[in-house]
Structure formats: structure tokens, C-alpha cells
């Protein structure tokens, strides 16, 4: 027999015994009275304990279990054990939930928990920042009241959540978010959000790059194909044939330059192409650049070379020569005949070395400056193509600058000219004896009252910036 039953029979047994004794001693009338009083006491005792249980069950979940007596001791003890077990389970569950929220808060993506009616139940900080949520006010609100992009509404209604959709952020006009619903449990969902602004920008650049390469190659190929058909179908005199062949050769050279620049960019971006560093004197490189600039200008510009302080540079001479050359060729292409172009080198007080190209060309409006180093980006496409550029020069400059931990500085004003500058870090520069001289090219020397190539006793510093 279970102990609770034995405890429960103690009081009735005592009442029964008292009733029998009273019956023998005092008669049946008194015995009935004793039985009635005992039965009433037992019933009252059990009713009082039942009331205790009822009050405890209706109280707060953490209310203490009442203390029982007699037959109810084991009952209240069992309830107490169950309450402690439930409290332990709740504590473990709270720890699991807290850990989940901590993990979700550390995720780089946003997470919003939605109930069966697509109402917000919880969101991590990243989702609150990306979607503009505030749990203190938005908990329990339908998600469609806060994420109102038409694409998301259609996505939610369609019920096909296998893939994510990309929408513009309503909080930040320049941001793009990838949203995806992940069903879990019973009709509940997780709304995952990810900032894909950079990925979308890369995808856009890739699409633009392919379109631009196709366009840049299509134009010369069309010209060459047309001339070949003309040469095949028509009888032309020698002068016409020579002229057509020259035009075909010019277009072929344009394609060769484009392919060469593409290969250069590919090599600069390759992880398997480490920087081939060497120590070289900057002055001979600047003299080469000056000579190339004069050859490219064909006497149409005043070109001056200003070597403020000679130095030895640690880096890739070929890559830096390519970057410097692109800045120089840009300055010549976008400076009208008669303009002035200054190639300058200096070592600043902090030890950094600065190569700058300053021109009096067409200049660039401020709104175009941030995109200058994008591949094939041109402020004026028609004029840029007419100058013979591939549209990749400044992209090459940017990658060379990055590989040398340098900086590309821009200073330009529309109609007044531009200044390109590459600032090399001090650890790559070792000062040499100062030349203290400016070497002027044809035209520049004449304007200063000097003979071509004569050394001037003064030095003119170029301001940091970039070429157009």
C-alpha cells in the first residue's frame, strides 16, 4: 500500500475507533456525534489543502509551493519537486534562448523572427539597423508595415522562398539588401537580410566591364572589317589603298593598346603576381617620362620637369613607370595646344615621396572625381575616345598605387586644369643629394628665357592631385 494512502487512512481510523469506544461507553447518540464531528474535521482538512493547491496553481509561476501536513505532505512535496524541475527547465531554456540571441546578434546578417501572422517577434541588432526596426515599439507589428518595398510584398504573397530578392534600403538610399524568408517550426519564419551593396556594385562593374570591352573592340573591328570588304570589292588606286591600310593599322594599334592594358590590369590584380621590388633612382625615370611627354606632345605643349629633391625609391620600377606614364599621357591628351604641363617630384617633411603632374587642361568637375579610377569610366566619352585613350589608364594607376601602399590624390577644377599626385610612403623613400634644379623642355625653357634643356636655378613644387 502506498504511503500516501496509509497516511490518508490514519485520521478516518482514529475517528472510527473513537466512535466505537463512545458507542460502548456512552451510547449510540453520543457515538454518532463523535462520528459527525470527526468526519467534518477530516473533510475541512482536505478542503483547506485543496484550497491551498488551487491558490498556488492560480498564482505567479514562481510562487512558492505551500507546506502540507499529514496525507498532503507527499502531495505538496511532489508539487514542490515538479516546480523546481520546471524552474530548472525554464532556466535552461532561457539560457538557450539567450545564447541563440547572442549568436544571432553576432551574425553579419540581419535576422527577424516572424510568427504565423508575419508579425515581428524578435530581431537582432543588424536587422534593426538594416530595416529600421525598433523592438521596443515594433514587436508584434506586421513586417509589411515596416518593410514596404513592393518587391518584398510580392515575394511574401507568392510564398516561394527558395531564393532571396534584392531590394533598395528604405533607410539608406545607397544600400541594397538581399531578403529571404526561411520557414521553421509551425508556420513561423525567419527573415534574413544581408547588405549586398558591394556585391551589387561588383556585379554592375563586371557587367559594365564586359559591355565596355565589347564596345571598345567592336568599333575598331567594324572599321577594319569595312575596309577589308572595300579592298576586296573595289578597284582602288595606290593612294587610297595606302590610306585605308593606314587607318586599319591605326585601329589595330588601338586594339593592341586595349589588350595590353587589360593584360596589365590582370597582372596587377593577380594574387600570383607578387610585387617585384627593387631600389632605383627616381631622377633617370623622371627624365625618361619627360622625354616621352615631349614626344607625345609633338611640341604642342610647354612641358617642364621639376626635381625638387632626388631620391632612391623602393618598389617596382616598371609598375611605377607605367602609373607615372599614364598620368603624364592623360595630362597631354586633355590639355589643349599651348597649355602647360609640369612633371614634379618632391620629398615632403614626413619623408613621403610625391610624384605630381600638373596641367592647364580642361579640368574635371567635382562630381566626376570619385569614379575616375573605374575601368572605362570617361567624363566625356566622345572626346576621350578621340584622344586615343583606352579608358583603363587610371584603373592601372589605382592598382599600382595600392600595391605600393601609396595614395592617389586629386585636385581639379573644371576649365582651369588638374593635378595628379602619387604619394609613396616614407619607408619606400631614401633621400639623395638635392639637385635643386628644374629641367625645362622645348617651349617651357623658351618662355622662361632659357635654352631648351637648360637647368633653371629655382624649383617649382606641384600640388598634390591627379590628371584628368
Short description:
The protein has 468 residues and is of the alpha+beta class. The protein has helices at residues 3-26, 28-58, 73-106, 125-131, 135-138, 150-158, 197-233, 238-269, 282-297, 317-333, 381-386, 393-403, 444-447, and strands spanning 110-114, 120-123, 165-168, 176-184, 188-195, 278-281, 302-307, 311-315, 340-347, 353-359, 407-413, 417-424, 429-431, 437-440, 455-456.
Question: Could you explain the architecture of this structure?
Answer:
- 24% of the residues are buried.
- The protein has a 7-stranded mixed beta sheet with strand order 11-12-10-9-7-14-15. The chain has a 5-stranded antiparallel beta sheet with strand order 2-1-5-4-3, with helices on both faces.
- It folds into 4 domains: 3-95; 107-195, Beta-Lactamase; 200-269, Signal transduction histidine kinase, dimerisation/phosphotransfer (DHp) domain (Helix Hairpins, Orthogonal Bundle), CATH 1.10.287.130; 278-456, 2-Layer Sandwich (Heat Shock Protein 90), CATH 3.30.565.10.
- 50% of the residues lie in helices and 18% in strands.
- With 468 residues, the protein is an alpha+beta fold.
